[in-house]
Amino acid sequence: MSEILRVNNVSKHFGGLMAVSDVSLSINAGETVGLMGPNGAGKTTLVNMITGKYDVDAGDVQFMGHDITKMPTYQRCHLGISRTYQIPRPFPELTAIGSVAVSALHGKKRQNQSFEDALTDATHYLEFCGLFSKRNVLGKDLTLYELRSLELARALATTPKLLFVDEVMAGLNPGEAMKAVRLIERAKEEFGVTILWIEHVMAVLMKAAQRVVVLHYGKKIAEGLPQDIANDPFVIECYLGSCHA
Amino acid sequence: MELEVKREKLLLRAGTQKFEWHIEPRYWRMPAIWIGLLIVLPIFIYIVYPQLLPTIIDANLLAAIAIPLGWMTIGTGRMNFGPQFYIGAGGYAAALASIHLGWGPAPTLLVALVAGLFFGLLMSPLSIIAGGLYYTLLTLLFPLVFLEVTFIYTDIFKGDVGLFGVLPLISVGNFTLNQFLICMLALFIMLIYLLIVDKLLRSKFAPQMSAINDDEEVAEAMGVNVKKVKIISFTIPAVMMAVLGWFYAHYYGTFAGITYLPLAFMLKILMVSMIGGRVQIYGNVIGGYFIAFLELVLIMLLGDYSPVVFPIILLILLLTLPEGLFGLYRKRRYREYLPTLHVRR
Fold first, then answer.
1. CATH number for region B49-332
2. Of the four listed, A56, B62, B228, B235, which is most buried by Cβ atoms within 10 Å?
């Protein structure tokens, strides 16, 4: 498998707080990599640095051979990086189909694509995520599960090569959570995307991820197979307490 | 080049480019009727009661200012409280060129365009750097600073007296015919602005602006070049407003900052936007005509009391018509063929 993403010794601090410290990571094409760690471990900050929301204080980020460390967010999206958010962030005044059409239209440069073409594309992604019947509902009127599905449809419409899924289980009941997990797995199969999955629920990562990376206080403390990580005494100690990396 | 009719649309393919036009009557019937009425109205007034022509000119100019302001507001996702700054820039540039160089309306139009472009580009980074209330306060401040500058440099701007001796916009010898032709020119400019912004709201540019309006950060993460959209949405409307400054300067033959730069004029433009229909472009036309005629009627009926009653009526309308006058029409004939944009901030 070829390497799709390489993060070399990246660091990020907010004032005196070191959010991410000297983290390196690599993801191969077609992989599902889990990223876990207690609250405040720096998982979302790391994703924000890779997607371009935050500038990197030190280190560099390579995506498919391109150095994207200084690249604007929208250009990273054009290259094939997309994400969902921990707390869903829909376009509240846009309909579901309109939201997805924005991604279909601008996520990747396609020659000669009109807005009508983008709407047609959007229906496909909405149908895939089970939101076709809600296509004309405004973002602000959708339920939490629908919002998570909409976020996934919006991210997929940019035709990503690498998708960041940020805590998809948060706030969902067990039934909805399982549906969400199955949806992401189907997306991986159908669209061939590589996934970096941030999650607290170990059971999900055990099932879906091929590899798991663990962060704690902004540092990478473990990386390996899900089974190994689940039995790693250091990781267990970090989650249950009395660990200071 | 290839022309074809497909799914009730006229398609023109030229090389790698594709252009589409809706030819189904439901898309153009109502706009055609309204544009027809707007053209017939000045002709009718010219024949029956030409004293009303200045009010029609005023209505068209107010609508023409509010239309680009709507685009600016939607495209930047921020409320601009200083549209009169660009009217001032265009007006002073045209007036100075006309007085000092003896230039007529055609060359001074170019000067106004350049002035609008310069100040638009100069100010446009504000829409990226500043947000929310800070942006609104800064835009509110600029026209007032400009007004102070006109008072400080009285040798150039002639203070509150203003620049006079600007060459007339149209001069055919007959005053009434002159007014009629100016009225038609104002209407033409307003309709051109309406067409430009309408076309824009039906283009690929519209979803980008909607997304920016809702959540800039997510829009950028989904591939929208937010900075580019904001700079364009700030600069071009600024140029469009500067052209109206040029119009005012040549129409009245004089240009004084004290008339256009203070808050009173800005409030009138904002009222056109809000009463017309909360930045809905067609609402701006209704708002422009409504405000111009309401002001006239109140002056005729109430005389000195009109400056008090006028804002009270507008305030009541703001509270009772949350979607503006155009909202009344949309509620009755609501058909969402194409995406419409809503401004929250």
1. 1.10.3470
2. B62
CA A47/CA A45 separation, integer angstroms: 5
Mean pLDDT, residues A147-174 taken together: 89
| CATH of residue A182 | 3.40.50.300
Does B24 contact chain A (CB < 8 Å)?
A: no
Which one of B212, B214, B226 makes the best mutation probe of the A interface by having the most chain A beta carbons within 10 Å?
Answer: B214
Same domain, A171 and A181: yes
Percent of chain B with pLDDT over 90: 56
C-alpha A24/C-alpha A7 separation (Å) is 5
Average pLDDT in the A44-72 region? 93
Amino acid (1-letter code) at residue B109: L
Most confident of A121-130, A168-177, B279-288, B323-332: A121-130
- Residue B329: is it exposed, middle or buried by C-beta count within 10 angstroms (0-12/13-18/19+)? middle
Q: Does residue A86 lie within any of the structural domains?
A: no
Sequence letter at residue A231: N
Distance CA B106, CA B245 (A): 14
Q: Is B15 on the interface with A (CB under 8 A)?
A: no
Of the candidates B269, B239, B90, the residue with the CA atom closest to the CA atom of residue B166: B90
* Letter string b/e over residues A164-177, b meaning 16 or more CB atoms within 10 A of that residue's CB: bbbbbbeebeeebb
Question: Would you call A98 and B204 a contact, using CB atoms and an 8 Å cutoff?
Answer: no
**Taking the complete model, does pTM exceed 0.95, yes or no?**
no
Strands in chain B per DSSP E: 2-6, 9-14, 17-22, 163-164, 254-255
- Separation between Cα atoms, residue A53 and residue A67, nearest integer Å: 16
Tens-place pLDDT, residues B10-43: 888 888 777 778 788 877 888 889 899 999 999 9
Q: Of A107, A141, A159, which residue constitutes the final position of a domain?
A: A159
The parent domain of residue A228 ranges over: 1-80+160-245
Whether residue A113 is found in the same domain as residue A54: no
Rounded average pLDDT over B199-207: 85
Residues in chain B: 345
**Residue numbers in B near A139 (CB within 8 A):** 214
> Could you give the CA distance from residue A154 to residue A13 in angstroms, rounded to a whole number?
30
- Which pLDDT score, from 0 to 100, does residue A125 have? 94
